[in-house]
Write a structure and sequence with these properties.
This protein is an alpha/beta fold. The chain has helices at residues 12-15, 23-40, 42-52, 64-70, 76-94, 133-146, 165-174, 184-193, 210-219, 245-256, 271-285, 291-299, 309-319, 331-335, 352-357, 393-409, 413-440, and strands spanning 2-5, 103-106, 109-117, 120-124, 150-155, 178-181, 203-205, 225-226, 234-239, 263-268, 302-305, 323-327, 343-346, 383-391.
């Protein structure tokens, strides 16, 4: 990792930049693929899948028999681990269910909000060299809790045209309704437009490389929502003299092995810590099967020495990391200053990989600085909030004059009239009641 010492604040913005493919090149590729899929449907999807993933692919439909067979190829130990993770993820996300609360904002005016599931969602699960079956849990479990009626999963086939059995096993366990052997831009395009085979979804979830992220952004122009801009993985670690350098190095490498465009950042106010962590990285790197990928990611990564922890936190808030590890003394106290981060891990024992798999929090998080404005996936990501209001005659009397006055000021006289008519009926009822009372007397 490149070491940078005490950079001036004027250089922080530049240091917080991520490695990026030129946007013009990205969008040109996405536009071409989307155009073809919109016009030719399945034919175009299969053509691109053959070009980018499996040359001999004949169909991208994954049949139920294939999914059932996959369960036999997953070890009992892995099944138990997946079940433990699923349970923890379910417990954490069920805790996010909100009860409707009715509020009387004015006499006779009652307002409240209720949740409704997004009916059809698409989840993208990266595959290939690292089949992320854990992402199936992170997306399908909250979708199931939310009550989404259709959960469509796309994941790329490997070099033999197959999908990792653990992905298929987890998909069935977590309630996925359809699975397609599709990756990259073509998967996002298929779910965006819908084809003869792939359903059009209302919202797309899931991480991916920069091509997938660009495709997700483009899908919004065609009326399909996305969870967030979730691109190449990243971690930022703030470490002081109380850290365990081997732990820190392991956490940095755990993100570096995701892909060559991943980025890992180490911040410290202690020069010795940076030196020891770099030494540990070299020691641990040689044993990694994905060593080549991690080395490429480390070329895009940095270790930055600051004068104190306050500057480390300030830089971290500017960087807005997907994952933030506070390997410092008093991490709970330091965490109060965290403003921008996808998910935060407190102390030496809170490794980021626990959040990736089994702690219960969601690992689908904003990257590339989008933690400044986006949250990670939660139960709320799979639902819409619909507001309700019930207004009685008393309510018309409470707010009627204000509504009329404001509508008239905006020159929206039909708006005003909708209230005026009601006020008129109430006035007539009042006069009738008075007259009836006089007659009785």
């Amino acid at each position: 990792m490149k070491i940078i010492s005490n950079p001036s604040p004027s250089k922080w913005e530049k240091l917080s930049e991520r490695p990026m493919i030129k946007q013009q090149k990205l969008m040109k590729t996405v536009d071409k693929v989307f155009y073809d899929i919109h016009r030719k449907g399945d034919k175009a999807v299969l053509s691109y899948s053959r070009r980018f993933d499996f040359p001999d692919q004949e169909s991208f439909i994954v049949r139920s028999e294939t999914i059932d067979e996959a369960a036999k190829l997953v070890s009992e130990r892995l099944k138990q681990s997946i079940e433990l993770a699923r349970k923890n993820i379910e417990v954490f996300h069920r805790s996010q269910i909100e009860e409707a609360v009715k509020v009387e904002t004015a006499p006779g005016v009652v307002c409240w909000r209720e949740s409704r599931p997004i009916e059809r969602v698409g989840i993208y699960v990266p595959g290939g060299t690292a089949p992320l079956f854990s992402t199936v849990l992170m997306l399908a479990v909250p979708a199931m809790i939310a009550g989404c009626s259709e959960i469509v999963l796309c994941t790329p086939p490997d070099k033999e045209g197959k999908i990792d059995p653990a992905i298929l096993y987890t998909a069935k366990l977590a309630g996925v309704t359809k699975v397609f052997a599709l990756g990259g831009i073509q998967a996002i395009g298929a779910m965006t437009f819908g084809t003869e085979t792939v359903p059009k979804v209302y919202k797309i979830f899931g991480p991916g490389n920069q091509y997938v992220m660009a495709a997700k952004r483009s899908s919004q122009y065609y009326g399909v929502a996305i969870d967030m801009p979730a691109g190449p993985s990243e971690v930022l670690i703030i470490a002081d003299q109380t850290c365990n350098p081997s732990f820190v190095a392991a956490d940095l490498l755990s993100q570096a092995e995701h892909g060559p465009d991943s980025q890992v950042i180490l911040l410290s106010c202690n020069k010795k810590v940076i030196k020891e962590v770099n030494k540990e990285i070299d020691n641990q790197l040689v044993a990694l099967p994905r060593q080549d990928i991690a080395i490429q990611a480390l070329k895009n990564s940095k270790a930055i020495l600051f004068k104190d922890i306050e500057d480390c936190i300030a830089f971290s808030n500017l960087y807005a990391p997907e994952h933030l590890i506070l390997a410092v003394e008093n991490p709970s106290l330091v965490s109060r200053e965290v403003i921008n981060a996808g998910s935060v891990f407190l102390g030496n024992w809170s490794c980021e990989s626990a959040g990736d798999y089994a702690s219960g929090t969601n690992h689908t998080l904003p990257t590339s600085g989008f933690a400044k404005s986006f949250s990670g996936v939660s139960l709320d990501s799979f639902i819409k909030k619909i507001t309700f209001q019930q207004i009685s005659e008393e309510g018309i009397r409470s707010i009627g004059n204000a509504v009329e006055t404001m509508a008239e000021a905006e020159k929206l006289y039909a708006h005003k009239n909708a209230m005026t008519l009601r006020q008129g009926v109430l006035a007539e009822k009042l006069i009738t009641n008075i007259e009836n009372s006089d007659e009785e007397v």
